[in-house]
# Entry
Amino acid sequence: LALMSPQWLTARSSAEHLVIVIDRSASMAAAAPGGGTRLDAAKRRVLEQISEAAGSVTLIAVAGTPELIAARSSNAEQLRAAVEALEPYYGKAAYGETLSLAEALTRSEPDAEVRFVTDGQIAERVEGISFAVPFRAENVLPAPGTEAADGGTAGDGAVFNAAVAQFGVRLDPAGSGTAAASASIRYWGDAPREIEVAVFADGVRAAAKRVTLEPGRSAAVFFDGLPAAEWYRISADTGDPYAADDAAHAFLAEDRPKRALLVGSGNLFLEKALRLAGAEVTLLSPEDAETWAK
# Structure
């Protein structure tokens, strides 16, 4: 699954704290148009961003686990050495955990920015990560039909990101049996953009509407008359290069019976915690688990 469509990032960051996430997964070892590997191309782009950074820089590499290779450094030589030392990682890459780390590091920093440099060949589905600061993604591969030129611009060079920041569903208090949903779509871009936002109930498309997004603002979206369902999913057709924050899931906000199956030889602390949370706990021994599963 390709997480990103080809995109070149050309905007200079003015953030006081620039967090750069560098993809060094196995696909980055592949040849890049124009010579060298995709990781070589990523390194060049990251070094350009470091040289233009207005404040401190944090570098995080994608590997089996997130790798914090430089933290809030303004030492150009140290940062350059850290980038140039990067090598491809050939195991399963932890994209979700790495992007979550970048989100956590910038959550309470209004003057921060996150950039993700990759080839877009993401082998896992990454969901549920919504950045509180500007997030921009850069694909080191040129768009189809364009010339590969170091420092050139693929497509129209536009950089933007829209994200599902919040999503909730509740039953109609009037007792109609239907549900209502609300969501907040956060948008970073240079110009207004119209997108489609759809809601799915138990995986079935239930409603959709067009929403106009304004640069630097959040748009509230409301849906009424949705069918009652076990779970809901909202999907924003943003068309931006980062798909991980384009969807979110929610359950009905109501008091429904909670049931928990506790498999084990006995854990009084866990059982008590579950009961305090309002769950009906069923105990099952490991010996009976296989029979129960059948």
